[in-house]
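Justification of computing resources. Each target in the renewal requires a structure prediction run like the one illustrated here; the chain below, 388 residues long, is used simply to show the kind of job we budget for.
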Amino acid sequence: MQVHFFHLMPYGLLDLDYAEKYNSAWVTLPNSYFDPSKGTDIYNRYIGELELADKLGFDGICVNEHHQTAYGLMPAPNLIAAALTRTTSKAKIAILGRALPLVNNPVAIAEEFAMLDQMSGGRIITGFVRGIGSEYFAAGVDPTLSHARYYEAHDLILQAWTKEGPFKYHGRHYNFDYVNIWPRCLQQPHPPVWVPSQGSRETIEWCAAKERKYTYLQTFSPIELAQKNFDNYRAVAQQQGYQADASQLGWAIPMYVAESDEVARREIQPHIEAFFNRFLRSTLELRMPPGYSSVASTKQLIEQKFAIRSQQLTVDKLEEMGMVIFGSAKTVREKLLARRERMGFGHLIAMLQIGTQPAEQTEKSMRLFACDVLPYLRGEKSIAQAAE
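Resulting structure tokens:
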């Protein structure tokens, strides 16, 4: 298993009482809630935590893209990735991911990733997403074109990476007389492509297609739903004539490691509850604008995910559903090893910074995880050794 440290870069200073006036932390929450005098310190702290993950030996460090929200202060994740190419040396840098339908020039995205791949010495992992529903309000993009723009932008980017230029491209949404990127990617034919998803059937089938075999990442889901989607991926692969490898499946989950189970629960409770009940707070209209997904996928997401998020979630409920893991290092590693055995994923996306969590708690959890959990997940130590 490979283990990657993921950072959302949330606005941890958010006044949680905003919910008395506003029904979403996305798009419609006034930016007066953001204190400009605090931003520099926030970015310095968060970039430092990503750099620490590299020093602690995580296989990858992950950033992502969101717009007009307190949930994550990374509208331009490639800027963070560029900074990390200079201050990290070993970990892969995963951009999970760029929202392709929101851009009008996919060739520029191909150029940016090629630059980052060269600057990092070939450590870039590219993540391509459609962007969640609220991003379409923020970008002013027609959500009914989401799938079509995504697939076309993806195909154009791969051509730009792999096809000798200059060449012409004229499609439905994008038109170029000259596609001829400089520089080219260091990784050939191109960097790995990962696709984070909430679990739509269309995304799973597209990722698992034998001509792609992309790594599929399941995000913010009850364990039963994550298991179902991983099984769906493996079933699609079987239909396509091959057996999916564990490296094609990744699971993203918030985690916290402390000195004991009791300390971990006490310390994580206010932050994980604020995260799910305040930072993820949004309306169904913003989450699922008309035409954003197929009728079948929309129905599935509403029934299986959004119905859960509409509840007031407690730390106990989240733990019961398998949407968070916390405890001593022993507890966390045993749970993760059991879930890997059950679910068959090869990449763990460890969300070890959660919402309002202060820096000292984040660093403690990261260090305990790296020292007393990570070696067991990699097979460098065994549970039997731990008991000796």
